[in-house]
Amino acid sequence: MALFDIENHLSPKWKKIDYYVNFIYAGKKEGVVGFEYTFRFENGTVVYAYSKNAGGILVSESLRVDDNLVFERKNGSFCINKQQFPMEETIENNLGSNANNGSIVNFL
Predict the structure, then answer these.
(1) Smallest Cα–Cα separation from 48: which of 9, 92, 20?
(2) Nearest Cα to 105, choosing from 20, 39, 48, 37?
């Protein structure tokens, strides 16, 4: 189930408009639904988390590898491991403001 949800979240294909409404408590459309997936491998752990509103707009997103932050975007702030992903300030600002309304995982 987790892989299907992540695939739906990350793919650029058409999505059912009310897909996330089913996850919101009692149909409150102003709510936000959060997902967190932990993948354990022989030599480490990857934790991917994101939240979306009822309309499917990405509200927050983070990725950690072995408890080390790779990136996190939430509440108008953005942090990324610049040693692993060096980038120009303009790109960093666009990612932080969710300018393209997409997942940072897709960009990386």
Answers:
(1) 9
(2) 48
pLDDT digits (tens, 9 = 90+) for 58-81: 889 999 999 999 999 988 788 999
Residue type at 82? K
The helix/strand/coil state of 86 is coil
Indicate the number of domains in the chain. Answer: 1
Tokens representing residue 9 in the block: 């979240």
Largest CA distance in the chain: 43
Question: In terms of residue numbers, what domain contains 64?
Answer: 2-107
- How far is Cα 80 from Cα 71, in angstroms, rounded to an integer? 4
For residue 40, give the amino acid letter: R
